Request: fold
Amino acid sequence: MGSTPKRVSLSLDRSTLKLGADGQRIIAQIESQAKRALWHFATSLDHSPFQTLNRRIAECDGPLPRKARWVKVEGKRVFWSPVHFPAISSMAFIYGDLPRRVALGERPAFILESVGHPSGGKHYDGLSWTWPEVSPDVVLPMKGWSWPILVPVWLRAPSSVLVKSGGTNDEVRYPPAWRHLVGCMFDDYAKKEVRYGGYRTRSRTLWNEAAALVVAGHGEGWRWLKACSNGVRGIAYFRSEILASRENAAAWIMACLESDERDVWVGLRDHDPGFLQAIWATAFGQAYSDSESVPLFFWVEDVPHSGLRVVTPEDWMTTEDEKKVFELLGEPDPQWILQVGR
Reply:
């Protein structure tokens, strides 16, 4: 026989109308048990054609299925299909219709639509193929669309996901010609299921693994900056620490680019230009601190307000013009460009 259920009394804080410590502890235990049950469900059916979806719903740590499957839509037909690579998420076309064809060189790109309500909806409504914690193999520009965009691309099935440990790889490949593009922030990187059957969009920054600034700053410097209670805007409290190492200076510039701290940057340029030049020189070396500084670029993918941030010690500007973007970054080789078919 099973154990007899126990009656439990829970206290309530009258001033806040929140559960007391005992109630919060019980809720935490219930949530922990529910997560373990979900993890067991998601990992026990290894041969299920829905294994990729199960893992995506559970968002638990561990290796992913070797043969990825996802929903495929052809006209009015919807079925589960093996994922062919290269593959991209339909989140790249959020708020718009899907193109008929996208190709990487001679290879067609598999467009993975979100799994939504059975009654239907837009291709980007519902649970996206894109895990918030899983990085693509490469980020590539896409040409022939109604606006200039960068797209996360999977060249093979992701092998594992590390949700609980936060072990995400935020550094990925970009076109080799774009070594001064520091990274890209995707405002609509993924959609995650939340309570009551809704979905919440998750943003994600993917850094260029070949950019000199990222090589210098995305390690000890990044950990130092995250530990600073005042963040980027608390520069007055740790001026000497920024200049203490190349790693710290590079991390501070990266954080400015990611969080769009134009006001801070321009304020330093106008009132303390020597200090801003010193940060730049510390991050890159004296060769980069001359008047003809090589610009840094940071792309923001935020439809319909996507744009390229262009930053030097002398200026901070943003452009949304596709022609200007490719003039500044340069034209990648064709094998590094996604092309939308007409």
